[in-house]
Write a structure and sequence with these properties.
single chain; about 260 residues; mainly alpha; 9 helices; 2 strands; extended
Length: about 260
Amino acid sequence: MTTPSADEHAARIQTIFDYVKSEVALEQYLTNDYNEYFRKFIEKCKMGHFEELHDVTMFRYKGKDADGLNLYYRLRGARAENVHQKMHISVGPWGIGPRSGHYILLDLCFRYNVNAGIARCGDHDFGHPWLYFIDRIQDRVQKIWNLLIYPNHTNILAFKPTEFVAVGIGPLSYDSKYVDTGEPMPHFKGDLKFLAERMKLKCPPLPLSTKQEHLIYNDYLKSHPQPATKNWDELAQIFKNITNGKTVFPKLPSMLKRYYDQW
């Protein structure tokens, strides 16, 4: 189920605005800022800024309420399975490391954002699926000759990133009980070093994989055959205290509990 069209959405907001203006009891709230807010809101609705992309379902129709109005169940975020499907196609039947997966995901989201600009912001549609090429061409031309050759195209590459990592591998609010922040361990190379740098940790938390980690896990469960939340917390701290970045890596309680389900 998709959201209302741009014109229908704008008409609904206009109806709300007209109602507020017609009610005497609400006159005190009709400030210039309020009027300007609704004017811009309706204008953006007409431009399709709030119109849903057809390949990413954000809402599911649930029926009607007592007044006959449509009820929509809002799904969380941008339907993760759509990203998973595209990542699956990008990678194919191969196993890839975190660094490759990180940059493939960035490229996927970059291309998606370029296409989203056409569907939601009225950017120019060049009539082919390789719209990210237009983004890259315009970016190069601007840098070399300072010319804007596609004035109706919003250049995604021109946006300046913030410190917040919204896509790919980045720092999380890890509890210091389980991991240590700081520079990567000096012996790290390749993907391990990449993970640690991106997460801003001395050693990244990894799922159980080494022989020594399995021995630690098995020995702990021998004395705790019915583990509870406090046990996963305790075991995670044990892993942190003996982490060496070679045969033992930090663990989060959620990792340990998840492994127990298949143990």
